[in-house]
Design brief:
Elements (H helix, E strand, L loop, with lengths): L13 E9 L1 H17 L4 E8 L3 E4 L10 H7 L2 E4 L7 E3 L2 E9 L9 H17 L5 E3 L6 H9 L13 E3 L6 E8 L2 E9 L21 H5 L5 H16 L3 E2 L7
Helix pairs in contact: 3-6
């Protein structure tokens, strides 16, 4: 996908990167560098949309490596990488990932953890609606601490939805998300599954199976990665307007 366009030079400009496929290590390096640059005040933020090649199992920042069945990953050629964001394991295979970096005070994307998550998911939901897929956010429960403790015991991100994560109309988790914060900046990762998730095949002692039918089932048709990536980008671009611009040079 093309990445060159006239840039908009303002202190509030967020850059849009449609990056296509990359290795797990390279994708995490780019996202981490964007977060660090935002924390330093070098940039206001960025939106990246990409996927992984080869398939990759990403672990949350504090997730124990012992959750991974390394033998199964080696057998099937699945890379393993650790995300700078939190959450649990995601198998990046048959999916598209978005990464949003911004200041925590950003009027369109920032706020507290759950507030920022809800705002960012609003843009993601708008993009999925362009594909004919309606979603609804999981309601924020009263027992936030209890939910967090239960989530910590589940190795697979798609085994259960967290607050504000997007569900399809059947109530199945469609988008898994996690955040990291550094100084005055935040990074939110989100993974949109095209097909039913199957990370449990590469995890030890998974306490629950992945639940979710995937975007293709929700759309009732074949949706490609490029089409999904463009829809996600449009979901951010339309409401953000001139704040979101393609950079002349996407090399970090």
């Amino acid at each position: 996908m093309a990445t060159s366009c006239t840039s908009v030079s303002t202190s509030d400009t967020l850059t849009l990167h449609l990056d296509g496929p990359g290795s797990g290590a390279e994708n995490m390096r780019r996202d981490t560098e964007l977060l660090q640059r935002c924390a330093r005040g070098d940039i206001a933020g960025a939106v990246r949309v990409y996927w992984f090649a080869p398939a990759c199992l990403s672990l949350g920042r504090l997730q124990p490596a012992t959750d991974v069945d390394m033998g199964a990953c080696a057998r099937d050629g699945v890379d393993v990488v650790r995300r700078p964001s939190g959450g649990r394991a995601v198998l990046h295979d048959g999916e598209v990932t978005y990464a949003v970096v911004c200041r925590v005070t950003d009027p369109d994307l920032g706020g507290g953890v759950l507030d920022a998550c809800a705002r960012i998911h609003g843009h993601v939901a708008r993009g999925l609606a362009l594909l004919g897929v309606q979603t609804l956010p999981r309601a924020r429960g009263r027992g936030v601490r209890r939910d967090a403790l239960e989530d910590a015991g589940v190795a697979d991100c798609f085994a259960r939805p967290a607050a504000h994560e997007l569900l399809d109309v059947a109530g199945q988790k469609l988008v898994g998300s996690a955040q990291a914060r550094l100084g005055g900046a935040l990074l939110q990762h989100g993974s949109v599954m095209l097909d039913p998730p199957h990370a449990s095949s590469y995890l030890r002692n998974a306490v629950a199976n992945s639940r979710g039918g995937g975007l293709r089932r929700a759309a009732g048709r074949e949706v490609g990665r490029e089409e999904l990536a463009q829809a996600l980008a449009s979901g951010f671009a339309r409401p953000l307007g001139d704040r979101l611009a393609r950079p002349l040079d996407t090399t970090l």
